[in-house]
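Trying the structure run again after the queue cleared.
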Amino acid sequence: MLAAHIYGRILLIQRLLPLVKAATGLGRVVSVDYGGYEGIVVPSDWPALTFSVFPFRFVGHCASMVTLTLKRIAQAAPDVSFIHVHPGVVPTKNIDGLPGVFRLIAKAITWMVSPFLAISIQESAERHVFLATSASYKPKSGDTNGVPLVKGLELHEGVNGECGSGVYSVKWHCDGPGEKVVQLLTEYEKNGTMEQAWQHIISELKRVEKSF
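Done. Tokens:
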């Protein structure tokens, strides 16, 4: 269910954002999920309750939901940069927490692709530290951009197609999102889908909070 997958992280970002904005140093939010794999969203099923038989559509839907929401939040925090990243195949024990057949499938896939695609936990950590600190992923505005660029590094392209625009979606090699994703997300912002996704998440968070 999408609720646990996305709503919780958006609530956390919302609650911590004032502290991030008030920081005297670099302000940055890194969301580890499906960055770079944004796809078609289904407004008639924001929580993705009917996606169990379409796992690839689920990934695209969820990835777009996260990135669109980060874009929406960034409008009120241009001095903070937001990064949506997919970590790649990293050998951890998270798979053990999956239910039944999904755990077996995930373990089988991991076993098959690990020799070719997996990166170590240490390397994954190093890449995420880079994402969290490098000026390649600077905020849209402000003077605090991160660790200065060195030879061979340059400003990264944001999800709107502009370098250094403040909201980024990257895969495990810290690259992406690619022209197709940029076009898709730009269209979703223009046609109101981004705002619809945002309003849905906000309404769900308010509904849940009222139950406590």
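The chain has one domain: 2-90+119-210. Worth checking whether this holds up in the mutant runs.
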